[in-house]
Design a protein that fits this description.
single chain; Thiol Ester Dehydrase, Chain A; five-stranded antiparallel β-sheet; about 140 residues; alpha+beta; 3 helices
């Protein structure tokens, strides 16, 4: 599988004063992507909670390459580029449906934390293996 890919429409309410997609929207798309990535790995938020841990974002970076406008449909690709026993890096490409080009690249780092302890949670080999299908280049 590798990358998880999905589409999002650009809506009029997502446009800022400069007439392109607001920076806030990119972060929302990353959140949707992260949720879909976890679901594709068979480790949705509910399952992690049942197992006694969750993931907390500790870093987000976005590099804007070209602006996005209304009306457009973007394709978002997300994958895990690095996985340790206690953290994961997720990489994203956001592509413009209008031009087919990468409009933005992003990275997020999440740390796995025990729900009861609020301390780093070490993934079991089984939990770590669940993420193999969504590990990309």
């Amino acid at each position: 599988m590798g990358k998880v890919t999905f589409e999002q429409d650009v809506h009029t309410f997502q446009i800022d004063i400069n007439r392109h997609v607001s920076n806030v929207v990119y972060v929302q798309w990353l959140e949707i992507g992260r949720t879909r990535l976890l679901e594709a790995a068979g480790m949705p938020i509910e399952t992690m909670q049942e197992r006694g841990f969750h993931a907390i974002l500790v870093e987000t970076t976005i590099k804007h390459v070209e602006p996005l406008f209304f009306p457009d449909t973007v394709t978002i690709e997300v994958w895990i580029s690095d996985l340790t026993h206690v953290s994961a890096w997720m990489d994203f490409n956001i592509l413009s449906g209008r031009t087919g080009k990468v409009a933005a690249r992003a990275r997020q780092r999440g740390v796995f934390v025990g729900r009861e302890t609020n301390r780093p949670y070490r993934l079991s080999p089984e939990e770590r293996a669940a993420f193999d299908p969504v590990r990309g280049p």
